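Field log, afternoon session.

UNIT: design team B
ACTIVITY: writing a sequence onto a fixed backbone
BACKBONE:
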């Protein structure tokens, strides 16, 4: 490579949010003064400043000025790079060492860290060693700050502070900037979106309906100046992605959710999705726009593929009907000249492929299912109207009497005892293997057996614990169910909204004889209701 003919002395300065507490000594102006004085002392001329203000030192691919400086290095324009200290160049030890020990020497660029008294053109082995140590400390500092910032944010989120961008339908409160208040016009749009979804409309259809109503999309609101009264047609063009985010966002039931997404690490700022069980949720931190019952119904709808049939209609039972034997969904099919019927997906899929079905058809005509469900739900509504649901409450509580709870509690105790025994056994095996009492092969075989059992026991413990918790919440769940069903009176027809409000699933059993038989046909249908299960 030709000798570097660069003439620029690059003064690189950086300040990030996590460094602000370090005080004035680390400000951009302070860095500038120190670097310019050092450049003057070394008689460097043709100075050029590269400044990244408000950016993290852990990344090297997201700092505009750093990237521009490195490009100038590659282009042979720079002869010297000066920083106040190494942490200003970066807090990623491996990347700092790569540029200082590989890239800069290759390009014959001199690197100088003023506070660390490091000069790549005048260094000893000790200097190299200390430079590496200091770079690792810089990285450790960044990791420590990252942990502290996350911890502080977690505490604030658990206290109900809203730390993300202000969601559509809300504004920041004037008296508390990290608290939300409802923006009523937008809230009405949110309620309409949820209502249309409950009625069975898809997001593409809802987007068109919002456009027709000239409802302004969230992105347009953020980009419109406050005093502007002009609206472009594009301002009303909603997309399905925006609608899906709204329909799945717990903020609309009054909850603050933190950590739905996070950076892969303090050095890698790639955003990744966090599993729902690891979210931090603070309930009822602000006024809700929709009820929890509506929101939960929408989440159940979202799990169902709601494609219209060939006639363009959406049948009201979609996603609710399950096979009593294999648990698969029952889907609607129409044969020429025959009444529409439901049948088991497992049966139909394997029969279509010419493979012997592992389940039976569980066929039931649409009108028959409709009639059964209508009679059962209308009867339940009538019972609730008679006594306010008192008979239902007593019946359900009776099903969850102490005998059942005692049985689950005893099982829970036995499982925990066995879990402790397995842990002690595994510990003993480890000790015997370390002492040479049992061979590695024997240890591996026995450990595998106990580890498998331990995994199974742990799953059973979680299941028993969930049942115990569910029994403890029976009264609250009955109250929630009665509050929902009390909205309906004199039921004459079924709607998608009613089914999503009341029903968790409808289980269809195989009939005693097929439809073509001349014998009397019987077919069992069980309805599992939201909050209370089968009743």
């Amino acid at each position: 490579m030709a000798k570097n003919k660069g003439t620029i002395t690059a003064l690189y300065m950086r300040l990030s949010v996590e460094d602000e507490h370090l005080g004035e000594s680390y400000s951009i102006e302070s860095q500038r003064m120190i670097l310019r004085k050092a450049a003057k002392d070394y008689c460097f001329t043709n100075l050029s400043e590269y400044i990244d203000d408000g950016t993290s030192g852990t990344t090297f691919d997201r700092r505009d000025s750093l990237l521009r400086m490195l490009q100038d290095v590659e282009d042979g324009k720079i002869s010297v790079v000066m920083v106040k200290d190494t942490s200003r160049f970066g807090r990623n030890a491996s990347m700092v060492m790569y540029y200082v020990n590989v890239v800069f020497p290759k390009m014959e660029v001199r690197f100088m860290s003023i506070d660390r008294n490091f000069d790549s053109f005048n260094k000893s082995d000790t200097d190299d060693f200390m430079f590496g140590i200091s770079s690792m400390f810089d990285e450790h500092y960044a990791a420590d700050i990252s942990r502290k910032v996350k911890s502080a944010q977690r505490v604030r989120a658990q206290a109900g502070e809203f730390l993300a961008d202000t969601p559509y339908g809300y504004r920041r409160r004037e008296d508390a900037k990290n608290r939300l208040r409802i923006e009523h016009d937008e809230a009405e749009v949110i309620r309409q979106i949820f209502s249309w979804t409950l009625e069975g409309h898809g997001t593409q259809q809802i987007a068109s309906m919002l456009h027709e109503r000239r409802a302004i999309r969230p992105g347009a609101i953020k980009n419109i100046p406050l005093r502007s009264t002009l609206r472009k047609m594009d301002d009303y063009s909603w997309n399905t992605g925006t609608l899906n985010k709204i329909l799945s966002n717990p903020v609309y039931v009054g909850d603050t959710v933190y950590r739905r997404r996070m950076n892969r690490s303090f050095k890698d700022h790639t955003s990744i999705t966090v599993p729902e069980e690891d979210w931090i949720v603070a309930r009822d931190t602000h006024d809700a726009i929709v009820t929890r019952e509506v929101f939960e119904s929408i989440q159940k709808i979202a799990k169902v593929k709601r494609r219209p049939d060939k006639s363009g209609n959406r049948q009201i039972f979609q996603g609710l009907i399950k096979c009593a034997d294999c648990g698969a969904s029952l889907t609607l099919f129409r044969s020429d000249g025959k009444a529409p019927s439901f049948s088991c997906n497992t049966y139909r899929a394997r029969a279509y492929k010419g493979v012997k079905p592992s389940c039976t058809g569980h066929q039931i005509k649409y009108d028959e299912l409709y009639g059964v469900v209508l009679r059962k739900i209308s009867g339940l509504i009538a019972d609730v109207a008679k006594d306010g649901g008192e008979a239902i409450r007593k019946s359900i509580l009776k099903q969850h009497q102490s005998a059942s709870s005692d049985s689950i509690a005893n099982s829970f105790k036995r499982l925990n005892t066995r879990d402790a025994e397995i842990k002690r056994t595994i510990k003993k095996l480890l000790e015997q293997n370390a002492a040479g009492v049992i061979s590695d092969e024997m240890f591996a075989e026995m450990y595998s057996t106990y580890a498998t059992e331990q995994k199974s026991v742990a799953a059973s413990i979680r299941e028993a614990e969930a049942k115990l918790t569910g029994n403890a919440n029976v009264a609250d769940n009955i109250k929630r169910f009665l509050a929902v069903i009390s909205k309906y009176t004199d039921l004459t027809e079924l709607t998608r909204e009613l089914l999503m409000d009341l029903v968790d699933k409808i289980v269809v059993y195989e009939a005693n004889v097929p439809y073509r038989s001349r014998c009397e046909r019987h077919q069992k249908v069980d309805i599992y209701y939201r909050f209370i299960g089968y009743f």
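LOG NOTE: The chain has four domains: 8-155, 170-302, 321-388+489-534, 401-480.
NEXT ACTIVITY: expression trials, pending approval
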